[in-house]
Amino acid sequence: MAGHEPQHSVSTDYVSALASGAADEEEETPLQHTVWCDTAWLTHFPLTEDTVMDYFARSPFYDRQCNNEVIRMQRNLQLPAAPGGAGMDDWLRSMVGVEYVSVGPEERPPLPVEYVHNLFVIRKQWRRAPDIADVLASYYVLNGSVYQAPTVVDVVLGAVEQSLQFLADAPWSNLRS
């Protein structure tokens, strides 16, 4: 699979800025406006609950300094297995710091049947203790494309902005003296 680079799709605002010459080479697209897909990977491997974390780890959303990566590196060095044959989740619970976890189907809202096997949700969280983790961001993988989910603040600010625009464009706004 060498020589295959991930396919990236970026926001239209960023593409417009590049076309107009307004964006610097150093300027990066905000991840909230990034859609990532690796078609080469998808042609060779199925996207399932078992493979979605490996797929996500290839994306620009993945922090290579996270606990998941530390565990992956240790496994590559073939260090002894976790006590009691513990899996990735058990290792992550024993660590403090940034981690990524796949949200299982039982934690997701009910979905139409056509999305059940095509939608995966991943949480980035800060693990403080074995039973305490704060969600930092959520991502979803739909049909092989990875997106960052908007935060509640983003949604509320967007709604307020749209409401203010409607008020500014309202017919009575022309009646001001």
UniProtKB/TrEMBL annotation:
Superkingdom of the source species: Eukaryota
Subcellular location: Nucleus
Entry's Gene Ontology cellular component terms: mediator complex
Any GO BP: regulation of transcription by RNA polymerase II
Region spans: Disordered: 1-25
Keyword Repeat: no
InterPro entries: Mediator_Med6, Mediator_Med6_sf
GO function term, MF aspect, one: transcription coregulator activity
One Pfam family named in its UniProt record: Med6
UniProt KW keywords: Activator, Nucleus, Transcription, Transcription regulation
Gene3D superfamilies: Mediator complex, subunit Med6
Assembly mode: Component of the Mediator complex.
Record function comment: Component of the Mediator complex, a coactivator involved in the regulated transcription of nearly all RNA polymerase II-dependent genes. Mediator functions as a bridge to convey information from gene-specific regulatory proteins to the basal RNA polymerase II transcription machinery. Mediator is recruited to promoters by direct interactions with regulatory proteins and serves as a scaffold for the assembly of a functional preinitiation complex with RNA polymerase II and the general transcription factors.
Similarity comment text for this entry: Belongs to the Mediator complex subunit 6 family.
The protein's name in its UniProt record: Mediator of RNA polymerase II transcription subunit 6
Underlying gene: MED6
